[in-house]
Amino acid sequence: MSNQKLPDIKQNFSEWYNEIVFKAELADHAPVRGCIVIRPYGWQLWENIKTVLDARIKATGHQNCSFPLLIPESFIKREAKHIEGFSPELAVVTHAGGKKLEEPLVVRPTSETIIHYMFAQWIKSWRDLPMKVNQWCSVVRWEMRARPFLRTSEFNWQEGHTAHATYEEALLEAKMMMQEYVNLAQNYLAIPVIVGRKSESEKFAGADLTYTYESFMQDGKALQMGTSHLLSQNFAVSFDMKFQNQAGEMAYPHLTSWCGATTRLIGAIIAVHGDQNGLVLPPKIAPVQVIIVPIAAKLGDAVWQKALEIKANLEKIGISTQFDERDHLRPGAKFYEWELKGVPLRLEIGPKDLEQNQVVIAERLNSTKENLLIHDLVTAVPAKLQLMHDQMFAAAKGRLQAMWHKIDKLSEFGNQLEENAGLYQTGWCLDGECEIKLKTYKATIRCLLDTGEFKNCFACDKPSKSDVIIGKAY
Amino acid sequence: MSNQKLPDIKQNFSEWYNEIVFKAELADHAPVRGCIVIRPYGWQLWENIKTVLDARIKATGHQNCSFPLLIPESFIKREAKHIEGFSPELAVVTHAGGKKLEEPLVVRPTSETIIHYMFAQWIKSWRDLPMKVNQWCSVVRWEMRARPFLRTSEFNWQEGHTAHATYEEALLEAKMMMQEYVNLAQNYLAIPVIVGRKSESEKFAGADLTYTYESFMQDGKALQMGTSHLLSQNFAVSFDMKFQNQAGEMAYPHLTSWCGATTRLIGAIIAVHGDQNGLVLPPKIAPVQVIIVPIAAKLGDAVWQKALEIKANLEKIGISTQFDERDHLRPGAKFYEWELKGVPLRLEIGPKDLEQNQVVIAERLNSTKENLLIHDLVTAVPAKLQLMHDQMFAAAKGRLQAMWHKIDKLSEFGNQLEENAGLYQTGWCLDGECEIKLKTYKATIRCLLDTGEFKNCFACDKPSKSDVIIGKAY
Predict the structure, then answer these.
(1) Among residues B298, B308, B367, which one has the least CA distance to residue B336?
(2) What are the residues facing B448 on neighbouring strands?
(3) Which of A18, A250, B109, B257 has the least CB density, counted as fewest CB within 10 Å?
(4) Which residues of A touch B93 (CB under 8 A)?
(5) pLDDT class of A3 with cuts at 50, 70, 90
(6) Annotation: CATH topology of A290-389
């Protein structure tokens, strides 16, 4: 790992982002357009995110399963808006087993169509409802402007798919899963988010209603973290999915899908929390929560033994701990590297510390250092990790609020949008003609809020029907 | 679920297999050639297998990561034998993002090539070795004769890939991971296996040496469970992967890959343990270890409450327990269904049982029933599950031994091979000309053993160089 400084995070956020991804060994460029290789440090982060959310998905009554990667092209075409939305991004298998296929297969960009095809066979009676499944997999959407984690031709995600007897129940499901995503973001990733609905033009291809949760990166760019869709009966009609309801009549179920956790979340973590020294990883999901660096120690000596003992004691209480035993690096180089990699806590231990039964504990977030009795570590470390989580969330929230502007008219905030990115809360009449005027600023309506602070539309000045958040998407 | 009887497992094993997969809701046909949908019950089985092995993969020093699904066609062609082996099975993406690609991409049939391309960039010095990574993903190999779990065009697996400074270390790694697979099979899936080397004609395309572990289904067909390969330097040369060794010289690392856990293992579980009443799932990885069926009980009454209490107590000690609260099915129908699904233990509880503070406990394996005090369940259930594991392993081993024949000459066992499948242990001169004679019987050399019981080759009668196991593969 080279010791060259990272680009200035304030001046060149975009370059800083690109460099830290590779320097921290989260990912590497792949020899396939728009794709990355997710390296062990990045993948462990994803596994930790997955573990948290998967437990919640199961606790809320969903079951995991696995649907095919390749989908007949005709399936994608069944729901008219769906094919319109996804067509430009598809990767298509035309040959297999040495022959040209009779019908091309698309590499799944999302799995609604094939899952609904199966739902149509499984759902016959109201007793089969609700049907609630989820899969963890990767999907492919061809990207011309890729960026590691934030936008890649292949990415990993979960996609939940459910069918319900009533509209109300489906709506409740779509909302509930959005709440689970917010819980993940705020309570585990320490990322404050804004939740709202997408506009007609921004919603999922084929959905009735799309909920989104959005965060903002340190350069003021908006980032869609994930979405939850009320598909209602559109896809059910396309796939002839009918069930006999309790009254004995045939009816179409109401569907949802929700794809709120993707490897993009790793990009959000990098972009929301990072600083000039590198990553700052949320303590609850950091692959390494504590790194122990020995000072002036040798394999097997007293310091070495004590470090291993501390590691074992922390692991016993569920703290992911590593001991940096490399003998060709000086402590300073190790400090630099683990700071770059955003490890929440670093313990330093040398002969003098051992004499005093203490270690030096350094916090990544505020770069503070203090001495701590070894005996106290098993209580102090979990407390410090929790505190660091709270501080990270508060700091991120402070940054979000600092870039949150409330402005009445496009003519007023147009100039600002050009200069400063950030959030612009305003009112909207819901007319697409007004929404399209944001194109000049390369901005979009990120979401519609339930609040009603603004009385008039930002563009046409007619009465506002919904507050909205406007921003420039990454 | 229909109550129609399963085909006779002794007379029509193949039909029995096909029906039980669908009836037990492990999987369903997918609308894509050779593919299946793995339903929640089947997928939970896979997740449980994965959890066991993933912990061992990490404990033995490997790290998970994620490489792209799509691989440039030219990569597959770099290692001559590799492309020769995989070419007929490839699914090829020729179009993406609405355009014809300059170079086609293949959907990974296995990831050696793209991983070695990355290894070549990461491995520069002996300090970077060993490099030990693994990924859990799905791969595609176009199948003309698919069979659920046993042979599908897409299947899920893990693939481990490592690079080492020396041949000896790589050999040790390939052997160690094979031992992990044997541990998984025998100690978790209750499947006795035979371990050996593949012949030159059967080894992995591009490998120096392939270890395999094989099981035998109840109809006497051989099933390759998984393999571990010593690739040595072939791929390293193809991908120009060089490192500076401790002496300061440039050298090629020695590589391994091991792909021993695939969704085929679910097929093995079905085929090795099933009986006339359906699945018999290994207790340690069964998605549902205990099913509680209430008798003459109603929502919220005393029996119902007690059943939920028993469920909670069993879950507290880590037993996966379900309570069958469906009110439109009679107990008999529930018994039938859970037997079909192979749940190891069934608890029945009704008003009379409650009076006596007992339940009826029924074991899937031997269809025995007994009364047990509720108070004793938390000790009796884990003990019964362990016992059932041991009994299943012993029973499967007994069946394996019963179909294990030792015969000297092809002329002698040729007739038998035609009539009875099973294992035929004999001697072999290592000559491919002799191996090819097995084609008449649709049999293959499953593996070479380390034993030396046989002195002459089964075909040419020249001195044997290795004992072999011959069988008919599924």
Answers:
(1) B367
(2) B197, B468
(3) A250
(4) 91-94, 107
(5) low
(6) Rossmann fold (3.40.50)
Mean pLDDT of A223-237: 95
Q: Which residues of B touch A36 (CB under 8 A)?
A: 68
CA distance A88 to chain B (A): 5
| CA distance linking residue A136 with residue A262, whole number of Å | 9
| Domain ranges in chain A with CATH number 3.30.930.10 | 13-62+116-273
Asked whether residue B273 carries a pLDDT value surpassing 80, the answer given is yes
Non-local CB neighbours of B390 within 8 Å, separated by 6+ positions? none
The amino acid occupying position A417 is L
Of B31, B94, B154, the CB nearest to A72: B31
Looking at residues A75-85, what average pLDDT do you find?
80
Residues of chain A with CATH 3.30.110.30: 404-471
- In this structure, whether the domain defined by A13-62+116-273 belongs to CATH 3.40.50.720 is answered with no
Mean local confidence (pLDDT), A18-35? 96
Backbone torsions φ then ψ of A122, nearest 5 degrees: -90, -25
Number of neighbours of residue B88 by Cβ within 10 angstroms: 12
Q: Residue A40 is nearest to which of B42, B64, B156, comparing CB atoms?
A: B64
- For A26, the closest chain B residue by CA position comes to B65
Domain B404-471 falls under CATH 3.30.110.30? yes
Q: CA-CA distance, B468 to B448, in Å (whole number)?
A: 4
Among A27-31, B46-50, B141-145, the minimum mean pLDDT is found in B141-145
ipTM: 0.95
Distance from CA of A54 to the nearest CA of B (A): 12
CATH number (3.30.930.10, 3.40.50.300, 3.40.50.150, 3.90.1150.10) of B30-273 reads 3.30.930.10
Query: Which candidate in B23, B28, B29, B66 is best for mutational testing of the A interface (most A CBs within 10 A)?
Result: B66
DSSP, collapsed to helix, strand or coil, labels residue A78 as coil
Q: How many Å apart are CA A456 and CA A427, to the nearest integer?
A: 6
Record the pTM.
0.96
Across chain A, mean pLDDT equals: 95
Q: What pLDDT sits at residue B3? A: 56
Q: State residue B176's pLDDT score.
A: 98
Neighbouring residues of B214: CB distance < 8 A, sequence distance ≥ 6: B193, B194, B195, B196, B222, B223, B224, B225, B446, B447, B469, B471
Q: What percent of chain A has pLDDT over 90?
A: 90
Asked if CATH classification 3.40.50.800 holds for the domain at B290-384, the reply, yes or no, is yes
- Contact yes or no for A26/A45 (Cβ under 8 A): yes
